[in-house]
Amino acid sequence: MRINVLRRSDPLTGLAGSVRFRRFSERALASPKSTAVLLIDVHREGGDQVLVELARVLRSCVRKPGVPFRLGGDEFAVVLPQINFVEQAYEVAGAIASALSPVIVDGRLTPLSASIGLAVSNPGELTHDELVYCAELALRRAQQRGPETRWAVWHEPTRRNVA
User: Fold this and answer.
1) Residue 48, domain extent
2) Is residue 43 part of a domain?
3) N or C: which end of the chain has fewer CB within 10 A?
4) How many other C-beta atoms are found inside a 10 Å radius of the C-beta of residue 150?
5) What is the rounded distance in angstroms from the CA atom of residue 43 to the CA atom of residue 65?
6) What pLDDT is recorded for position 113?
7) 83 pairs with which residues across the strands?
8) Is the Cβ–Cβ distance between 61 and 111 less than 8 Å?
9) What pLDDT, on the 0 to 100 scale, is given for residue 9?
10) What contacts 133, CB < 8 A, 6 or more positions away?
């Protein structure tokens, strides 16, 4: 029971957990609008304080109906339901990347950086697992670009308007 509660809500960051991530994503994908998923992997150097700070950044950058989640360890996600254009998801990824800056941890300035992978699904196009897999592919591409905050997008080259 306690493990299930922790998976619904993260006690360190206060963000929703992995169980809620799947449920929210599946509901969003069942809607008549497009859905984006961002996967975020923190380059962690400062312990729990860095994770708490990233959660603060996500809360400030993700507007409703979007929801940020902590999946576990250094992994976070954002679901953006009801998007009309891929650029809406790009704006959120860019805002998160721009908001990441060094934080003070134990009296030291500590870098706060992450890799971000983004994928968008048109209505009925991808399942939760497929969308997350596409976001993971984009995340790996972002990680290959270097240790600074980077983000990458998975998309079909011809798709521009996803509504």
Assistant:
1) 2-152
2) yes
3) N
4) 18
5) 27
6) 87
7) 34
8) no
9) 83
10) none
3-class DSSP assignment, residue 81: strand
Backbone angles phi, psi at 116, to 5 degrees: -130, 130
Q: Does 68 reside within a domain?
A: yes
Residue from 47, 37, 96 nearest 74 by CA: 47
CATH number (domain holding residue 16): 3.30.70.270
Averaged pLDDT for residues 138-158: 76
Joined together, the tokens standing for residue 129 give 């697992």
In a domain, 160, yes or no: no
Q: Is residue 157 part of a domain?
A: no
Domain count, the chain: 1
**For residue 102, what pLDDT is reported?**
84
**Distance of alpha carbon 28 from alpha carbon 112, whole angstroms:** 30
Amino acid identity at 140? R
Confidence class for position 12, pLDDT limits 50, 70, 90:
very high
pLDDT at 126 over 50: yes
58-94 pLDDT tens trace: 999 999 999 999 999 999 999 999 999 989 999 999 9
Pairing relationship of beta strands 150-154 and 113-121 according to DSSP bridges: parallel
Residue 91 near residue 84, CB atoms below 8 Å: no
When the pLDDT of each residue in the chain is averaged and rounded to a whole number, the result is 87
